[in-house]
């Protein structure tokens, strides 16, 4: 069943069970005990450092976890980003809040999305909610997709009726029925076959594990003081601790990227990617909708705009450097001319000094004079000293 974005009222078939957001959803896997080093802020604006698990976030009352974002990619970083991702994974298992009987996240009823967004904001604090909402809700949609994939893998049977009978305890019967019938549809089967075929092209897996690309990239930035480019990040994320690569194909591409990086040393701009960078030269242009080796969020169109801005910044910085050099050069010339004038005023007769001072005072830009062509007033044309 598809919910349309134009529907803003609570769906009639949505469960009427009261939601309890002080504990994880019953369907969610058991929360891990890993603790994240984060900051929380209370209603008075007081900030405090804490060590929290994802389960602890559900218990927060009157305080929120501060989420830090990378300004270049607009994605969560640090422990706060990891905690947000972990908690969203638990929230996505709440079938009472987000039903599983939809085909496309973009078509989910806006009432459901608004309720989910308000729930997220009750636990997490964002510097700019309007801007951050797009990423966070997209990440939630991805987590919900993972939930449906896991349910299908664990409960699918050979026939439609057998699968309908194998309903998980925590999933409402109506949701499960619509969910199962959709996946036994021929259209969905063809799409699944196409996706499975496409997935086989992913022959160079990364070594980031569950850690997102932005978080790993930020760790490299903290360590090196520079944001790694896509080429540098690909090499880093495909290299094992012993220096070997995940596969021969990854090694071949890494060598090609390394060659380009050596041939084209870049000015440090802290720009993650551009449409014509070394990565694009080796792997080809980007397809619509996503940018490889960056993570969720940036698209080719957005990346193109950012690249133009970054390129303009570099050109402007180079121009500033050139202008500063010109100013310093002119300043040196003016200083030399001033010293020369002082020597004239200190050694010439009164009448000569007055003439020279008046002449130089009327010159709009003394630095443009060629000092080597100015005759020494202490000598006559025949070169003899007349003092």
From TrEMBL:
It comes from the Eukaryota. This is Uncharacterized protein LOC104766344. The lineage of its organism: Eukaryota, Viridiplantae, Streptophyta, Embryophyta, Tracheophyta. The gene is LOC104766344.
């Amino acid at each position: 069943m598809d919910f349309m974005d134009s529907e803003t009222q609570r769906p009639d078939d949505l469960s009427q069970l009261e939601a309890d957001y002080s504990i994880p959803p019953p369907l969610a896997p058991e929360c891990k005990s890993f603790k994240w080093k984060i900051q929380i802020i209370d209603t008075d604006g007081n900030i405090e450092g804490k060590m929290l698990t994802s389960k602890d976030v559900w218990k927060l009352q009157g305080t929120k976890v501060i989420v830090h974002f990378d300004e270049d990619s607009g994605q969560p970083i640090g422990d706060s980003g990891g905690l947000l991702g972990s908690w969203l994974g638990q929230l996505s298992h709440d079938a009472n809040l987000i039903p599983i009987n939809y085909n496309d996240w973009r078509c989910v009823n806006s009432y459901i999305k608004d309720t989910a967004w308000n729930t997220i904001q009750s636990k997490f604090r964002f510097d700019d909610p309007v801007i951050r909402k797009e990423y966070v809700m997209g990440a939630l949609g991805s987590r919900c997709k993972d939930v449906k994939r896991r349910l299908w893998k664990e409960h699918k049977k050979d026939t439609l009726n057998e699968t309908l009978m194998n309903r998980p305890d925590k999933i409402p019967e109506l949701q499960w029925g619509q969910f199962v019938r959709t996946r036994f549809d021929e259209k969905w089967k063809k799409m699944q076959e196409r996706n499975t075929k496409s997935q086989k092209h992913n022959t160079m897996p990364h070594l980031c594990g569950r850690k997102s690309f932005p978080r790993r990239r930020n760790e490299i930035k903290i360590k090196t003081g520079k944001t790694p480019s896509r080429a540098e990040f690909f090499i880093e994320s495909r290299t094992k601790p012993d220096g070997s690569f995940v596969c021969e194909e990854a090694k071949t591409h890494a060598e090609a990227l390394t060659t380009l990086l050596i041939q084209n040393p870049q000015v440090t701009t802290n720009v993650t990617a551009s449409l014509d960078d070394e990565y694009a030269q080796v792997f080809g242009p980007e397809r619509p909708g996503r940018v490889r080796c960056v993570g969720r969020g940036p698209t080719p169109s957005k990346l193109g705009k950012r690249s133009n801005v970054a390129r303009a910044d570099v050109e402007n910085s180079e121009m500033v450097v050139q202008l500063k050099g010109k100013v310093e050069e002119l300043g040196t010339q003016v200083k030399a001319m001033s010293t020369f004038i002082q020597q004239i005023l200190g050694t010439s007769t009164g009448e000569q000094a007055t003439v020279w001072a008046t002449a130089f005072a009327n010159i709009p830009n003394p630095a443009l004079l060629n000092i080597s062509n100015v005759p020494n007033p202490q000598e006559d044309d025949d070169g003899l000293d007349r003092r």
